[in-house]
Amino acid sequence: MKKTLSLIAVATMLSSPCSAEINLSGFASINAGKVLSGTGVPQFGIDEPTFLADYPIVSTYNDEITFEPETLFGLQISANVGQGLSIIGQVVARGADDFDPTFEWAYLSYEINENWTVQAGKKRLPLFYYSDFYDVGYAYVWMRAPADNYTWQIFNYSGANVLYTGEWGDWSISTNIYAGREDDKENKLLSEFFFSEPTREIWKDIVGGVFQASYDWFEIRLTHMQYTNQRYQSGEPVLWDGKDERDGKFYGIAMNADWGNIFVLTELNRLDLGGNLDTQMITLGYRFNDVTPYISYAAFEEDSVGGEEHNTTSLGIRWDFHPSAAFKIQYDDVQDKSFDLAVAGDSKSLTVGVDIVF
Predict the structure, then answer these.
(1) CA 115, CA 164: separation in Å to the nearest integer?
(2) Architecture of the domain whose range is 32-63+138-357
(3) In this structure, what DSSP letter does residue 131 have?
(4) Among residues 53, 219, 231, 241, which is most buried (max CB within 10 A)?
């Protein structure tokens, strides 16, 4: 019923008469894969070989070929009502969620002038370089954004932000200052994978900023965010050192270099949450016309004894066989070095798919 009502709401919005200029765009990923070999994590009841491809939405593969974990369809609706005011919504239906369509974005945008824009509503939390187009597989070279780096359980927020774009000499500059909160009443990653019980995750008092600059072949992105975390398991508050909340600070830097055929992509992040959780990613690729082979390495490390630690080495090829579609194949080798907080165990997996934009 929820799926039907969501589709009816979108159809009604699109068919209702209005004076706004309506623009529609869409994207899809049709992916399939399987685990070639793996250890699982028997001490946590994960006996079969498992590859956790996408942490926030718990896209997992096992030793049977399946399309569901990462196949998705998305539709973005933009209504320009004139004089700089517009409304943007994005609906995504994921195989990992039984293709139940949900609004990932829903916000109001007001362009003050050619440099400044104010927005308010539900948006993607801009922690990482690829956060804003995380679901649009066509926008990046890999099958998916590297999971060890793009790993946090909260990826949206409701609030407001101010954007600036402009030119500083020969540099293209953009900044984004934002504030808000997110209350995920049954967080999927924590509820279904890590704790196996209903878990409510709250990030409140979120305040953050992003600075991005590019010149010729070089690009750099700096980000910082701070927030207060509360958590409830089966309705009971989780305590950290006797307190029912804790403060977190996120720091990130991404530096990319693109010389036409050869490109290097990097990200380095730290979450200070009563201890440091560090993630990193580096990718090297080479474009042979429409074919792009690449190699990538990503890692997650928690600086506590027995903490979470894992890394993934990936080899893949992207083939842009159509102006609006790309075929991809990727091999992933995961090494899970965690002891007390093992995630999914070691695994070797193969995935193939097609990303489309329209």
Answers:
(1) 5
(2) Beta Barrel (2.40)
(3) G
(4) 53
Q: Give the pair of three-digit tokens for residue 212.
A: 């991005």
Q: Is the pTM of this model over 0.85?
A: yes
What does pLDDT average to over the chain? 92
Whole-angstrom distance, CA of residue 23 vs CA of residue 14: 10
Report whether 244 contacts 233 (CB < 8 A).
no
CB neighbours of residue 174 within 10 Å: 15
Q: Which long-range contacts (CB under 8 A, 24 or more apart) does 77-81 make?
A: 77/10, 77/13, 77/14, 77/22, 77/23, 77/24, 78/22, 78/23, 78/24, 78/25, 79/18, 79/20, 79/21, 79/22, 79/23, 80/20, 80/21, 80/23, 81/19, 81/20, 81/21
Q: Of 221, 113, 107, nearest to 171 (Cα)?
A: 221
Rounded (5°) CA angle 254-258-260? 165
pLDDT band of 254, cuts 50, 70, 90: very high
Q: Which residues pair with 347 in a beta bridge?
A: 38, 334
Residues written for the chain: 358
Q: What is the largest CA-CA distance in the chain?
A: 61
Alpha helices per DSSP H over 66-118 = none
Contact 143, 151 (CB under 8 A): no
Instruction: Label residue 7 by pLDDT band (50, 70, 90).
Output: very low
